[in-house]
Amino acid sequence: MIRLQTEAIRVDELIESVGSDGDGAVAVFVGTVRDHNRGRRVLYLEYEAYPEMATSEMRRLVEQAGARFELSSVAIVHRTGRLEIGEASVAVAIAATHRDDALEACRFLIDTFKRTVPIWKREVFEGGEVWIEGAGETRVDRQA
Amino acid sequence: MTVEIRYFASLRQCTGCSHETIDIDPDADVSALWSMLEGRHPALAAIGFRPLVACDRSYAGWERLLEGVSEVAFLPPVSGG
Prior knowledge:
The complex is a heterodimer.
Chain A: E1 2-5, H1 11-18, E2 25-32, E3 36-37, E4 40-49, H2 51-68, E5 73-79, E6 81-84, E7 88-96, H3 99-116, E8 119-125, E9 128-133, E10 136-139
Parallel strand pairs in A: 1-5
Antiparallel strand pairs in A: 2-7, 3-4, 4-6, 4-8, 5-7, 8-9, 9-10
Helix pairs in contact in A: 2-3
Chain B: E1 2-7, H1 9-15, E2 19-23, H2 30-40, E3 52-55, E4 58-60, E5 71-75
Parallel strand pairs in B: 1-5
Antiparallel strand pairs in B: 1-2, 3-4, 3-5
């Protein structure tokens, strides 16, 4: 399961989609929307994707993880649109025969995802909003 | 030849459009295309970062020639997750 979706992420569904009787481990990472960033009180986030490329980059990531680690199955889901504080923005589930592969692949996948998959967040905080762009940010111009 | 240009996040805000079609010489590279776009959208010249480039939905360098490319996207540094 590799997809972008606007609906809430169901982690139980993700776990179910990867597990099989031959696996001894399922590693899961869930990224959530926190209420503060760079000293600001965050109200909500709005995620935007380049959908066709985001899904192809996600597939490429899964292939890369499969070449590095012994994995049975991988699922990655990212949400787009408006997300409230505490909601899951991204979830990764990885099934493997042994836990070391599952845990290390999980770390590799989420770290690489954050550097390569074309998705952006607009942070709406008390007093303004910005596009978060890597380590930088651009003020949102409401006129545009 | 014509190329479909796509803009995302703050770059979309800069240009005021998410996509447009540009007529360009097939011998041109991505850098030349960007210069042309800066002419059409002066706000692009003032952004505080160097965009990432994708040609036909794969990351590409600025020296990539446009011949055979149908879609070029300019991407701010990504921030998913």
